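Bumping my old thread because nobody answered last time. Still need a sequence for this structure:
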């Protein structure tokens, strides 16, 4: 152990004081809804977006080599390697290592000068990685061991001290939580942008009436804006769900070691602060084996994709020749290789199709977890591909859908004209009778007979005369003929949450205010 004099004490204080400030240069932060849900790290740098590490094989010793008499078979080495996907955590691991080095100074495992040399080397490794100059060794299994090997090659034996009191069990799950915190922020930003587009479309089309459906049959007239705002509400719940998931992720497991914690004096609260975590895990066994946060994340992704898929289905229906409610921009549609007239809603179809992929990731992780005893089991290596796959699907789907809907042309006249057909105001006519003391079930029967008469006569309800209405019930008065238009029907739904124009305008205004303050 190095003797620590006044010089080392000064170095120690300098290293500690640099903690959050130095960390911010590598990590940064993003505050959403009053809670720090993710430290925005170097993945925002374009240099890292498409970094593809080079992988090489060697006869490097395993960290557990002292226990074994035979080397791992090459087939087993390749089968168990996770480098090809956990390289995504390379930057998080570097950031974690820097913070952990400072924690080891506080625990008097590293000296101040050792810590400075280690941090400098780690920063250099990160720059080399950004430049695509790092060759990862498949024999070292994962990105974490590769970083450790690169560090030791750079600084010598002092690099071997960095893993003191830490296991890959708590190291990896800490990296994963750091990564997901950032991705939660990215997804909520994309949802926010989509919501803004929906509000713009709702305002522009405030006078457009469209048939509302139940059982895929025409039901009642509603404002197109009201229809669009239904998807705004779905996205609002999605965003709230991701906020909640972000809070669940925001727990630091580091310090739990393999499963029992560590006997070194690691200041976990300070370490959590340095890494941008809100709190530390309460139980070391749970901390290293818990993937509830990952399941919650995939659940939120699955529900979001379900909402997008529902919207995609309507886009496909509305764009058909039979409906002709909308026309997709040429930028977000494709043609046929054989039929020259075709214009296909492929972007919407792909979103619908990719929804199943995200569901699959959720079911895969649930299946992985269902039989695992405490604590860590190698099965947990399989969590990352499910998470990364979902992220790689959800973000592009959100982005392309928002672009597609923003450039879509809505045929308002066609929609409003369509809402005049199909006896959509029949319920309004029944309610008229109810207001004139006719029991609802009796009113329902009477209006049903009127609809049957209109079908036989090939006419719409709004063209019925007062005399014709009185043939079915003496309770009909002259004012009954004024409630039979689609406009009158929509205006009559004047209650909170209804489709009346004033109520929808209030909903749009309220939504804009909430969106501005991250409450929607």
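Sorry it took so long. Here it is:
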């Amino acid at each position: 152990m190095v003797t620590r004099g006044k010089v080392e004490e000064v170095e120690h204080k300098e290293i500690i004081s640099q903690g959050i400030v130095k960390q911010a240069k590598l990590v940064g932060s993003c505050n959403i809804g009053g809670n720090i849900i993710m430290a925005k790290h170097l993945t925002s740098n374009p240099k890292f977006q498409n970094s593809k590490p080079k992988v090489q094989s060697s006869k490097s010793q395993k960290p557990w080599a002292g226990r074994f008499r035979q080397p791992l078979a090459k087939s087993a080495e390749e089968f168990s390697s996770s480098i090809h996907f956990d390289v995504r955590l390379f930057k998080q691991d570097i950031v974690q290592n820097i913070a952990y080095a400072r924690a080891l100074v506080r625990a008097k495992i590293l000296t101040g000068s050792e810590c400075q040399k280690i941090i400098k080397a780690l920063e250099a490794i990160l720059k080399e990685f950004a430049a695509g100059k790092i060759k990862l060794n498949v024999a070292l299994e994962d990105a974490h061991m590769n970083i450790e090997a690169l560090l030791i090659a750079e600084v010598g034996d002092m690099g071997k001290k960095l893993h003191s009191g830490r296991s890959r069990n708590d190291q990896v799950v800490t990296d994963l939580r750091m990564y997901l915190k950032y991705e939660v922020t990215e997804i909520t930003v994309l949802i926010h942008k989509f919501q803004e587009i929906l509000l713009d479309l709702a305002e522009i089309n405030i006078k457009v009436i469209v048939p509302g459906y139940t059982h895929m049959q025409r039901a009642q007239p509603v404002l197109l804006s009201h229809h669009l705002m239904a998807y705004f509400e779905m996205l609002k719940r999605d965003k709230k769900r991701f906020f909640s998931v972000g809070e669940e992720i925001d727990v630091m497991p580091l310090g739990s070691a393999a499963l029992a914690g560590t006997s070194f004096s690691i200041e976990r609260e300070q370490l959590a602060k340095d890494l941008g975590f809100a709190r530390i895990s309460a139980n070391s066994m749970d901390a290293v084996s818990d993937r509830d946060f990952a399941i919650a994340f995939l659940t939120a992704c699955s529900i979001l994709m379900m909402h997008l898929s529902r919207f995609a289905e309507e886009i496909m229906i509305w764009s058909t020749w039979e409906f002709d409610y909308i026309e997709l921009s040429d930028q977000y549609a494709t043609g046929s290789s054989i039929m020259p007239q075709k214009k296909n809603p492929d972007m919407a179809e792909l979103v619908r199709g990719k929804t199943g992929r995200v569901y699959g990731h959720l079911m895969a992780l649930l299946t992985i977890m269902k039989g695992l005893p405490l604590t860590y089991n190698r099965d947990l290596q399989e969590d990352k591909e499910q998470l990364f796959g979902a992220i790689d699907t959800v973000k592009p789907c959100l982005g392309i859908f928002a672009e597609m809907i923003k450039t879509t042309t809505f045929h308002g006249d066609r929609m409003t004209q369509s809402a005049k057909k199909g006896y959509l105001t029949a319920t309004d006519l029944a309610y008229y009778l109810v207001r004139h003391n006719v029991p609802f079930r009796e009113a329902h029967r009477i209006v049903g007979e009127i609809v049957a008469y209109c079908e036989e006569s090939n006419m719409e309800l709004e063209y019925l005369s007062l005399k014709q209405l009185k043939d079915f019930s003496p309770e009909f008065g002259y004012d009954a003929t004024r409630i039979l238009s689609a406009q009158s029907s929509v205006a009559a739904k004047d209650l909170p949450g209804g489709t009346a124009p004033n109520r929808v305008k209030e909903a749009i205004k309220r939504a804009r205010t909430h969106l501005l303050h991250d409450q929607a």
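The longest helix spans residues 168-204. Let me know if any region looks off to you.
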